[in-house]
Amino acid sequence: MIELGLSRISRLVQQTPLSWKAIHIAGTNGKGSISAYLSHLLASAGVRCGRFTSPHLIDRWDCITIDERVVQESLFRQIEARVKLRDQTLGIGASEFELLAATAFEIFNHEQVEIGVIEVGMGGRLDATNILNNVLVSVIAKIGLDHQAFLGNTIEEIAREKAGILKPGVKCVVDGTNCSEAIVAIKDRIAELGLEATIVHPDTPDPQLPSLLDLFRRNDLLTHQRANMSCAAAAVKSVLPQVRPALEPDSLIPQLASVEWPGRLQKLALQPLTGRIEPVLLDGAHNTQSAEVLGEYVERKLRLKGENVTWVIAASHGKDIRPLFHSIIKPGDSVAATSFGPVDGMPWVKAADPNELCACVQDIPSIGEVQSFGKDIPGALDWACTKADGGPLVIAGSLYLVSDVLRLVREANDS
To answer: Does Ligase show up as a keyword for this record (predicted)?
Structure first.
């Protein structure tokens, strides 16, 4: 169950003051990538850096890293048990996400982290991570329609909730590729607080960061990738003088080229599972905005010869699946629909019925073969690999499907 609010997390962490400073990131899409870019840049600068993102990919603790390495399971379980005991003793009744956030924060204390890169779970104003009171810079990534039941039905309403992470006296960085409605709402909050703000535009990189423009010229990057890198670069430029004043921010920028964010435009080998030699594309696109990004990538990279694409899809129950899948699946494509399993730590998350997914994509004119595989993800992958016959194959629609596929590949590699 999702319960927004700061009262429970406040009681949960009040006995353990945070010993580190934070970079706080909100947004609908891109905040995970920005987190990855930032932690990589800071680690490259010799800053002991923790990162907390959500949801996890395979194991519950893999959403917490120290200097780019996933925290040890034993330490995670030890501190998680301490946090849960405190929750029970004080009768707080914290949510699963609040317990996880508190666990991450205390792990950062234990590991003597200097800076924690913290991704908002949902929204911003009432998200558990907004308990942070020692923030160096706030970042607002791309905003779109998602979680309307909690955040509002318009971009303006959602943007105001995301801008709730902005704090008096704390500099902020904003993705300037946001729509005008979002920008206006965010600027209103910036003006209200009198903040120093940097609104980044990837088409006009900061002249004080010439390496960023060079990086863009050398790499065939999509607009969202350049925007996310620009946000991370601007945040590092703001933070570095406070923690490593001898370092020039521009000297770190080339490191961005080597950052990978699992589950986002990830090339994955399925050979241990299916025998397919060619890599497949794995992406957690789960809303209209992220689907547009995936669609752009597929059009530019996978349909070069007019080839049809084979898809393996799943979605969370309650998602508006029509705009999600109709924006990426094209006439002639083939589709295997499946459902992900239970999500550890998030029992309220349920998968959409694969038969409903099939009915949705069958509305696409001249669609290829469409089959439902129920909960049989391996069966869906086998069918899709056979159908694709070495051609383009994409797994998409849900980060939880991404998690299950990565877990299956890991188990196959370990066996």
So the answer is: yes
